[in-house]
Design goal:
Two copies of one chain form a homodimer. Chain A contains 13 helices and six strands. The termini of chain A are far apart. In chain A, the strands form two sheets. In chain A, strands 5-4-6 form a three-stranded mixed sheet. In chain A, strands 1-2 form a two-stranded antiparallel ribbon. In chain A, helix 7 packs antiparallel against helix 8 and helix 12 (225-233) packs across helix 13 (235-264). Among the domains of chain A are: 9-60; 186-265, Serine Threonine Protein Phosphatase 5, Tetratricopeptide repeat, CATH 1.25.40. Helices cover 60% and strands 8% of the residues of chain A. The first copy, chain A, has helices at residues 5-11, 33-60, 104-110, 112-119, 123-127, 137-149, 156-168, 172-184, 191-200, 204-215, 218-221, 225-233, 235-264, and strands at 15-16, 23-24, 29-32, 81-86, 100-102, 129-133. Chains A and B meet through strand 1, strand 3, helix 2, helix 3 and helix 4 of A and strand 1, strand 3, helix 2, helix 3 and helix 4 of B.
């Protein structure tokens, strides 16, 4: 093919990307063809693994007993325990709420706290009813739903409510799930409130994310109303923030003096 | 940096792969840097997704009631049904077997056949005991284990036994899992037996894989002892193989005559 020899000598200087089909030169060089093909295979393998895991999740997921889809509403689900949202003072069920049916086996396998309640001869195990205070009916339903499906429909309020429940009943997976949601919505304005909330409910991922945002904006934060309120309400927590701030400043100073040294060497 | 200009003019002809660090020319060009970086990000995202799915699987997985790990052997698991491997003729439990405890909710959520048994007023639902014939005690335990964990320790025998159970109790996920294992071990010598087995138990993935191997080796297959036995035992199945063979040949002929035409055009 003698006609193409011109093209070839040109393309030895400009390469054509097999992915975007644009030409590129040495400066913009990515991978050789072999590595590209290997990477494509890896990507295919990862995608196959994802499909397999998704089908495993679907297999392992339960339809919760309170599932309201029409064709299942009449099916019994062999539930053996009831969860009831009660008023913290009176101990009576909340108005407009109903007992949420569940399976002891599911509750015990998802939460060590439920397991302890149900395995020992505690009131809950004898009566077959678990009372939860400080929880709305909606949050209780979402909580039970998550224990069956590992899924929840979140907004800020629901995420906070579920973190409280996840902390109390030691459902780590749910806590991480809700923390991820709240971290993705973290803004400077709410960072102090998030920090306080995370502190109260041992949400360490959210705590770290909120603290990092606060430390990057100490000058703005210290003028905010929530800051003044927090100093009043929980000064120890404010001290913790300042300690982290100080420690960050020291570290920055050390590493920059270290950089200077390297530069001088 | 005037010193590097020489290097640049060289590297405009030979690129350096950012992955394997080897030089390459236009002929072996893969991607530009931008596409490489994009692909790397995609890979990272896929890996993160895999980690999340794995943690979801861990959360949703149950420890089966027959779990034999020492620290759990005494924990009750709120089981409410027993599975018993029985002799197909006498209906009595197999020797050296024991009832396998399980949860109705788990069985019903994994198998529509169990669901139907347990939800209606059938013998199984009333007695709380499900009898399974044609199954060894080991296979029964592995079966129940899979319903709780989506995992099984397979060899050829166990994979076949579990496919039989998966077919009978309509546990698709388990069938696919075992088929994958058997397909990975498929060889010409056993392809006819696998084909027959897959046909009997509606294992369509295994059926397709075995058939494809058979069709590629029809001359060798038709001389094998299993072939002669199969003609004797189930000639209709052999006809199906020949029909597939014929159809493959016709398709090949059509597409090659099509290629010829394109070539002539």
């Amino acid at each position: 093919m003698p006609e193409t020899s011109d093209d070839e000598s040109t393309s030895s200087e400009m390469m054509k990307c097999v992915s975007c089909k644009e030409e590129y030169d040495a400066e913009d060089a990515g991978t050789c063809r072999e590595c590209y093909e290997e990477a494509s295979e890896t990507e295919e393998e990862l995608k196959r693994e994802i499909e397999e895991l998704k089908s495993k999740v679907n297999f392992l997921r339960f339809w919760p007993p309170i599932d309201s889809r029409p064709h299942r509403s009449t099916s019994p689900c062999f539930t053996d325990v009831l969860l009831v949202a009660v008023d913290v003072d009176s101990g009576h069920p909340l108005a407009n709420s109903a007992p949420v049916p569940a399976n002891k086996a599911v509750l015990a396998s998802r939460s060590p706290v439920f397991r302890a309640m149900l395995e020992t001869e505690m009131e809950e195990s004898l009566s077959g009813t678990i009372k939860l205070s400080d929880v709305s009916y909606d949050a209780l339903r979402a909580f039970v739903n998550y224990l069956y499906t590992a899924e929840a429909c979140l907004d800020d309020d629901m995420a906070c409510n579920l973190i409280i429940l996840a902390d109390k009943y030691e459902v780590k997976h749910l806590k991480t799930y809700c923390e991820k949601f709240l971290i993705s919505k973290l803004v400077l304005e709410s960072s102090l409130i998030s920090y306080l909330f995370a502190h109260q409910h041992n949400a360490n991922n959210l705590l770290d994310a909120a603290l990092s945002l606060i430390l990057d904006n100490m000058d703005k934060i210290s003028k905010r109303e929530e800051y003044i309120e927090l100093v009043d309400k929980d000064p120890r927590l404010v001290v913790e923030i300042y300690e982290a701030y100080l420690s960050k400043q020291v570290n920055t100073a050390v590493s920059s003096s270290h950089d200077d040294k390297v530069f001088l060497d």
